[in-house]
Design goal:
Blueprint lengths: L3 E3 L7 E8 L3 H6 L13 H6 L2 E6 L2 E2 L14 E2 L4 H6 L4 E3 L9 H15 L2 E3 L1 E2 L2 H4 L3 E5 L2 E9 L13 E2 L9 H13 L5 E7 L12 H11 L3 E5 L7 E4 L2 E4 L4 E3 L12 E8 L8 E9 L2 E4 L2 H16 L5 E4 L4 E4 L9 H4 L2
Parallel strand pairs: 1-9, 2-3, 2-16, 3-6, 4-5, 6-7, 10-12, 12-13, 13-15
Antiparallel strand pairs: 2-17, 8-11, 9-10, 14-15, 17-18, 18-19, 18-21, 20-21
Helix pairs in contact: 6-7
């Protein structure tokens, strides 16, 4: 697949990372009459201002296929909704998740064709294991960025040499498939200025990383990954910097039609922006978001403060500094955010 190109923002390349984007069910219904930019709400200026954008595509975009037998939640979005990704200028998507085969192999293969025609790179699922485990690459402001996606969900969907599916690997260092992920990272990091590993792992709920996630994320960094971008949990989790490289254990949901849990609040999330001078992540800027009526919007007021405070507490468990920037309305996370300013104080 040819490398995708991206524009320039500011002094350094800026990458925008988005959690689970589900465009099926009610979102698909809305898009029968709404414009392709509808699901992105007021976040498009931030997304368009980045040099490169990626998300976990938590559905299959296709008009083909039949619902998978015995599966409760099945997400398919009309083929025309590839324009939704184009509206946000998405450069790459992670396809390694538990919904990409909801409508079978025919739907997956149609989506791969749609993405290729639209110039959207992809990693994590394919016509066979070789394609599913292949990096998506991009030339971003003179830097080569690579995206490698895997999942520990739906082991029955594991791609093989002769069967379409997902790049499956449990986060268990004793498992040969986990070692295969590490081997790919070691080999490909030599060819990239920045290698992002996208991990769709674990269960839907809980604010703490699950068993094996921390150990495996550390191993990925040691193998050469520049950033680990975890998702699958409907709620965001804390961020750790290990050997100077960020690990986002759970990005949370970004856009969907899900019912909202009143306790864990799966409608809350972030746009994760990272500057990469010389291919080295220089901390993160997190912009709080909310999902409303099948679209995402930037959080405001008390909602914004609550989301920020929650993330600061989760980061503190990893001794990760976080600082709120009132004027620009973002949370700076990482080594450069040494002095904390609480939103309640900053907005007083």
């Amino acid at each position: 697949m040819p490398a995708a190109s991206a524009g320039t923002r500011g002094e350094f390349p800026t990458l925008a990372l988005l959690g689970d984007c589900m465009l099926g069910r009610l979102v698909d219904d809305v898009l029968q009459s709404a414009s392709p930019d509808y699901p992105w709400g007021d976040t498009l200026p931030l997304l368009h201002g980045a040099s490169w954008r990626m998300c976990n595509l938590e559905c299959v975009i296709a008009d083909r296929g039949k619902p998978a037998a015995g599966k409760v939640f099945q997400f398919r979005s009309s083929a025309k909704n590839i324009a939704v990704l184009q509206a946000a200028r998405i450069n790459a998507v992670s396809l390694a998740n538990n919904h990409v085969l909801d409508y079978g192999e025919d739907a997956l293969l149609q989506m791969l064709q749609l993405l290729d025609r639209a110039g959207i790179a992809h990693s994590g699922a394919g016509a066979d294991l070789a394609q599913a485990s292949r990096l998506a690459t991009a030339d971003v402001c003179g830097q080569k960025v690579g995206l490698l996606a895997f999942t520990d969900n739906e082991p029955a969907w594991e791609a093989t040499a002769s069967r379409p599916g997902v790049f499956y690997a449990p986060p268990d260092l004793g498992d040969r498939r986990a070692q295969n992920v590490l081997d790919i990272v070691r080999a490909q990091t030599k060819l990239c200025d920045l290698l992002i590993v996208s991990a769709h792992w674990g269960s839907n709920w809980g604010y703490l990383p699950e068993s094996g996630h921390v150990e495996f994320a550390h191993a990925l960094i040691e193998a050469g990954a520049g950033l680990v971008f975890g998702h699958s949990s409907h709620v965001f989790r804390g961020i750790e910097f290990y050997k100077g490289r960020p690990i986002i254990y759970g990005a949370g949901d970004f856009v969907d039609d899900y019912a909202v849990d009143p306790i864990e609040r799966n409608d809350q999330g972030f746009i994760y922006l990272v500057e990469t001078p010389g291919g080295i992540p220089r901390g993160l800027r997190l912009y709080p978001t909310l999902i409303r009526a099948c679209r995402v919007c930037r959080a405001e007021g008390l909602q914004e403060r609550g989301i920020v405070e929650k993330m600061k507490d989760l980061c503190a468990a990893f001794h990760t500094p976080a600082r709120w920037h009132r004027a620009e309305r973002y949370l700076e996370v990482g080594c450069s955010a040494q002095q904390e300013t609480r939103p309640s104080q900053a907005t007083a």
